[in-house]
Design brief:
mainly beta, about 50% strand
């Protein structure tokens, strides 16, 4: 099966991903993401500062959304696999 260029664009619309290094500021309880590659080329090379907290056995990243006014807050929860 082959997808058309339009189908590829539609599948990627609304997605966002990046990869790179990160730094931890334990005193401020912040993680600083340093994207090297991103689906939005303008994101690469930026510094993305995010507050973090540990809740039980989970790492929680959450903040107010600054770039998308339709989203009030976002939250990502990481839990170690058992």
């Amino acid at each position: 099966m082959h997808t058309t260029p339009e189908e590829k664009i539609a599948a990627a619309d609304g997605t966002f991903a990046y990869c790179g290094r990160y730094e931890i500021d334990a005193k401020q309880k912040q993680i600083i993401h340093l994207p090297e590659v991103a689906t939005d080329p303008g994101y690469a090379g930026s510094r993305q500062v995010r507050p973090y907290a540990f809740e039980g056995g989970r790492l929680v990243l959450s903040d107010t959304e600054k770039e998308d006014p339709s989203v009030a807050r976002w939250k990502i929860v990481w839990e170690k696999a058992k």
